[in-house]
Amino acid sequence: MTNAPIRALRRRLLLAFGLLASVCAVAIVYYAAQARQHVGADYTAMVADVVRSQEDPARLLTALTRLENEHPDHRIHQEELGELLLRIPRRIENIRIQVLRSDLDRRDYAPLLEELSHVETRLEALLGQFVQVQRDGLDEREIERLRELGLEIEGGLAWSYSELNHLVQQASADQRQTMGWLTLAVVSLLVMVVLAVGAVMLMMLRLQRQRDAMRHQSHTDVLTGLFNRRRLQEVAEQEFARRQRHDAPLSLMLLDLDHFKRVNDAYGHPVGDEVLTSFAETLQRQVRRLDTVARMGGEEFAVLLPNTDGRAARQLAERILGATRAMPLPEEAGDHRLTVSIGVSEARQGDSFEHLYTRADRRLYGAKEAGRDRVVSSEALPKVANSGAPLDDDELDKLQQRNAR
Ligand SMILES: Nc1nc2c(ncn2[C@@H]2O[C@H](COP(=O)(O)OP(=O)(O)OP(=O)(O)O)[C@@H](O)[C@H]2O)c(=O)[nH]1
């Protein structure tokens, strides 16, 4: 079992994690920018209006002073004053509406609106006075009265606008601070979410690894690292299904080390283990990547050979015979001659894996019976000593039964 699926899964998880983190980062930056823009835009219009209105009190006073010095025949400054007396109430109304619609605290702006209302009544009085002046002309008393009203209005307006300015600046600063905290909270939250998602992904990855490791163990022979009987069965079922679709040949080879008990008895079990492991390596060196090598138990092995007919399987088996004889053994067992018996069978029409396995097993038995260190396959069955004719499967069955008795 390779690590490739785990690596692929890890790559996919990392990619998903990176994408998620990027989306979160873009969302945070976009949100923060939007929020700041919104706060700024809310008060900018009001501040602009207040700044414009703050010029009105000074203009009013200037217009009144010029009025004093104006020649009765020239009505230029009277017109300027008249215009101001119409414009200032409009501006006050505009600012009042904006204040009422804003998020400012009512308790903060109530005195300010009260003062503006007072200024409005004073403006009405000034307007009345002004109309009278226009009608009756200016005298010392009228001028004095106009100046008093003008100063009162100027004071009220200046105080109200400066208070309002202060309130707006304060509110703006408060909101910016709130937005800062809010942004920090959102960022922390998102970071936590991202970390949590990352942790879950890591856990999933670990679980996947553990599952793969367990699956690997359940399919693997501990001593040799080869597949075990169960895995061979699974692969064989897949190969049989594939064979039905593509009509490709499929062969099975069963191998059993000869007189292996003697190795154990002569050199000890650990040396026997080493020999089994070396034989497994020898087998793997002989086969192709698409072949499946398994240890069936004890000193018995199997090789499933997709896209391989009986003849090619036999040739491979002959090669394995030679490689086994030439296989270097552990030092302690240097004198021993290791050989193997092999039964080979090719899948026939309508076969199941059980059929294929039983036939190969029978031929393996035949190889043992015929003297070991040989291959028995459908293409070259062992000869019966007295007749010299090759044995077929039925004859091998009979031989097997006779020996069992
Ligand atoms: N060292 C070692 N020996 C094992 C292992 N599994 C099975 N064996 C031994 O393999 C031997 C098999 O002996 P037998 O079934 O008599 O077969 P054999 O001696 O190879 O004789 P033939 O198969 O008839 O040629 C026994 O001694 C088992 O103890 C293993 O994992 N390690």
UniProtKB/TrEMBL annotation:
EC number: 2.7.7.65
Catalysed transformations (reactions): 2 GTP = 3',3'-c-di-GMP + 2 diphosphate
Keywords: Membrane, Nucleotidyltransferase, Transferase, Transmembrane, Transmembrane helix
Residues covered by the GGDEF domain: 248-380
Domain of life: Bacteria
Pfam family, any one: GGDEF
Protein name: diguanylate cyclase
Organism of provenance: Halomonas pelophila
